[in-house]
């Protein structure tokens, strides 16, 4: 057998399967023709060993704790670049020149307003609606307002839809927040940068001037960079699957937002902060560690563990630093939740259970503390994640639509239900 093929033997028969290398990371065994050739499906619930696509956008080495956007380490992008530069990189594949960056910023900035009629959608929601529920509904509704960018076969329309979503997501997220807290909507301001404009739309009120703190805006921008893409995670795979049928991009992103909402995914930052609040004080940590290790207790340490990272999540390290910067800027010297988080991390990282299972803090462990300090209620945390991840979803969606070998996604199953049986009239059923 050559180095670039694998042999599959079932009973007396064998087949050669092609092995394709990645530029970095594991190679894949190509099983696309497996069913046709062998009559067998593969079985991989949760896709733990299955590559669903070929991609050039983001790479994670979970054992090393490495995250690259288009080859650039997340640490360098987060410390030296800004979010719109990362957006350009994810969308176009290269860092922009100064002229390209200026042009991109201009194009995003001038798409930030939403159709005025769309603002009435918000008032149709119950006042106590979760802002993620509002996001799912209103982002899906974009396809009802921007008909001139829903033809996915037109590259120009695809790009306009992409820019519209990156530009409008902060406006929609801020409106969801304002509606949630019962304050008037604040329109976008084109003289502010992306993160400052978002903070302004969230925290300004018409009755007084609001000055955006540049340190907090920089922290917000860095949080957006850290969340911008994460290869084929659940919500991104949802966007790709939705898009594989030819659905318009606004509908696909709404599907991604719905998936992100779950507590095992984007909802974990909200859940992590709630957990820190529930623990409440350092002396209660052992009780919760014990529960997390108990097989009969469904409790998990939220913000710990990751499907791919079996080492420290590189985003968590940057997030932790950002947390300290934000708290220092706001003069918050004693945050009991931060004390609990630091001690919990220390204890868990030295505990045999967590060491053996390679459970490390993920990005959500510290992001909640930072977002709360910035002034956001917990219900907004996943919304901010959705805002930032939109560019990743869009880049992955575009890559898929532009791939000539793209097919509708259609997984198979291992059927374990009844074999064929005859219909029984209701009068004869027991
Ligand atoms: N606390 C306690 N035990 C855990 C935890 C945890 N947070 N996470 C995993 N384990 C245990 C789990 O019980 C299992 O033990 P065993 O092998 O004895 O059955 C083992 O570790 C492997 O867990 P798994 O559920 O099979 O692993 P997974 O890859 O399917 O799950 C995960 C990954 C992120 C869903 C999971 O670690 C988890 O539920 N973490 C808490 C939620 C969380 O923080 N999610 C945010 C993920 S990062 C943001 C994002 O990318 O969306």
Automatic annotation (TrEMBL):
GO terms for biological process: tricarboxylic acid cycle. Coiled coil: none annotated. InterPro entries: Citrate_synth-like_lrg_a-sub, Citrate_synth-like_sm_a-sub, Citrate_synthase, Citrate_synthase_AS, Citrate_synthase_bac-typ, Citrate_synthase_sf, Citrate_synthase_typ-I. Gene3D superfamilies: 2.20.28.60, Citrate Synthase, domain 1, Cytochrome P450-Terp, domain 2. SUPFAM superfamilies: Citrate synthase. It comes from the Bacteria. CDD domains: EcCS_like. The active site is at 306, 364. One of its GO terms (molecular function) is citrate synthase activity. It catalyses: oxaloacetate + acetyl-CoA + H2O = citrate + CoA + H(+). Keywords: Acyltransferase, Transferase, Tricarboxylic acid cycle. Pathway: Carbohydrate metabolism; tricarboxylic acid cycle; isocitrate from oxaloacetate: step 1/2. GO terms for cellular component: cytoplasm. Belongs to the citrate synthase family. This is Citrate synthase.
């Amino acid at each position: 057998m050559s180095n670039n093929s694998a042999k599959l033997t079932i009973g007396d028969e064998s087949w050669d399967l092609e092995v394709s290398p990645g530029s970095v990371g594991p190679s894949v065994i190509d099983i696309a023709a497996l069913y046709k050739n062998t009559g067998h499906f593969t079985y991989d619930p949760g896709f733990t060993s299955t590559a669903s696509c070929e991609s050039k956008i983001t790479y994670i080495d979970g054992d090393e704790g490495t995250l690259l956007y288009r080859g650039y380490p997340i640490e360098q992008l987060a410390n030296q670049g800004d979010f719109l530069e990362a957006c350009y990189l994810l969308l176009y594949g290269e860092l922009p020149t100064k002229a390209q960056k200026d042009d991109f910023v201009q194009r995003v900035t001038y798409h930030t307003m939403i159709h005025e009629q769309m603002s009435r959608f918000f008032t149709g929601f119950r006042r106590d609606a979760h802002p993620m529920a509002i996001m799912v509904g209103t982002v899906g509704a974009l396809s009802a307002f921007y008909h001139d960018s829903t033809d996915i076969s037109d590259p120009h329309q695809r790009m306009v839809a992409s820019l519209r979503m990156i530009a409008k997501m902060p406006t929609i997220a801020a409106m969801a927040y304002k509606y949630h807290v019962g304050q008037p909507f604040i329109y976008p301001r084109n003289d502010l940068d992306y993160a400052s404009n978002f903070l302004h739309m969230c925290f300004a009120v018409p009755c007084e001037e609001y000055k955006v703190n540049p340190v907090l805006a920089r922290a917000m921008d860095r949080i957006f960079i850290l969340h911008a893409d994460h290869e084929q995670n659940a919500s991104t795979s949802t966007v790709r699957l939705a898009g594989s049928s030819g659905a318009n991009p606004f509908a696909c992103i709404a599907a991604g937002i719905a998936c992100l909402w779950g507590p095992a995914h984007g909802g974990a930052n909200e859940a992590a902060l709630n957990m820190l609040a529930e623990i409440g004080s350092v002396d209660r940590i052992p009780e919760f560690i014990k529960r997390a290790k108990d097989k009969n207790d469904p409790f998990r340490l939220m913000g710990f563990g990751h499907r791919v990272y079996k080492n420290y999540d590189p985003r968590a390290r940057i997030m932790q630093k950002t947390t300290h910067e934000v708290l220092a800027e706001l003069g918050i010297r004693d945050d009991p939740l931060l004390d609990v988080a630091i001690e919990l991390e220390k204890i868990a990282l030295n505990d045999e259970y967590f060491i053996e299972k390679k459970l490390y803090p993920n990005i959500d462990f510290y992001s909640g503390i930072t977002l709360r300090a910035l002034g956001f209620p917990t219900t907004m945390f996943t919304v901010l994640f959705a805002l930032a991840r939109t560019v990743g979803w869009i880049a992955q969606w575009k890559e898929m639509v532009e791939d000539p070998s793209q097919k509708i996604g259609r997984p198979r199953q291992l059927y374990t239900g009844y074999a064929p049986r005859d219909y029984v009239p209701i009068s004869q059923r027991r």
